[in-house]
Amino acid sequence: MTFGLPVFPGVWDWYLQWREKRHGFYIKWEEDMLQVLLGMARPDVKWMWQHPELTWNVKSVPGLITATELAIAKANWRAACDTCFKHASQRSKEIHRVSRIHRDPFEPIMSILEAESPLFEYRKINDEIIQCRMKIAIRARLRKQSDHSRCCDWGCVSVFVKRTCGSCSSARAGISRHRKDDWRI
């Protein structure tokens, strides 16, 4: 990997197609990336123009950079930078025209960021989570108690439940478990 790769239009075309396949459409990110490239390859700034050594470690990549393109870039670095700038300018305009707003990354936390005291808002979230966990624990305990209570209630009525539910209060109250017809306490 080398910083000389962005000069080749094939690399950017591949990257932009990969990003489009990933999202299904272009987003602002792709346009911003091209703007960064334009800033480095701009003729009046000439940062990339001043560094032809960026191609020293570049090797041809099948499908992205041919050996011919690489030889041309090494022979005339300024022309390669000019081609890069023109290609990035054109692609940036195309993407700007068709890009969509994917989502605002700050939207989920915007109410917290706009609050007078963001730490207090986080404290409220923490308190809400604790209350929710307590409600779940109480519901689970009540469900367990009601299941036990039902088991004991049915133990007084059903012989089967009376025999299988050994923890019933009716069994402790003295109902005989040995004879089916004995229901006396």
Short précis:
This protein is mainly α. Helices cover 62% and strands 0% of the residues. The protein has helices at 9-23, 28-41, 67-75, 77-98, 110-114, 118-157, 159-164, 169-172.
Draw up the topology in text.
Blueprint: H1 9-23, H2 28-41, H3 67-75, H4 77-98, H5 110-114, H6 118-157, H7 159-164, H8 169-172
Describe the 3D structure.
This protein is 62% helix and 0% strand. The protein has helices at residues 9-23, 28-41, 67-75, 77-98, 110-114, 118-157, 159-164, 169-172. The radius of gyration is 36 Å and the shape is elongated. 14% of the residues are buried. The mean pLDDT is 77.
Q: What class, by secondary structure content? A: mainly alpha
The biggest sheet amounts to:
none
Distance between the termini: 87 Å
Helix amount? 55-70%
Supply Rg.
Answer: 36 Å
The unreliable regions are: none
Please state the average pLDDT score.
77
Separate helix tally? 8
Overall morphology: elongated
Instruction: State the order of secondary-structure elements, H for helix, E for strand.
Output: HHHHHHHH
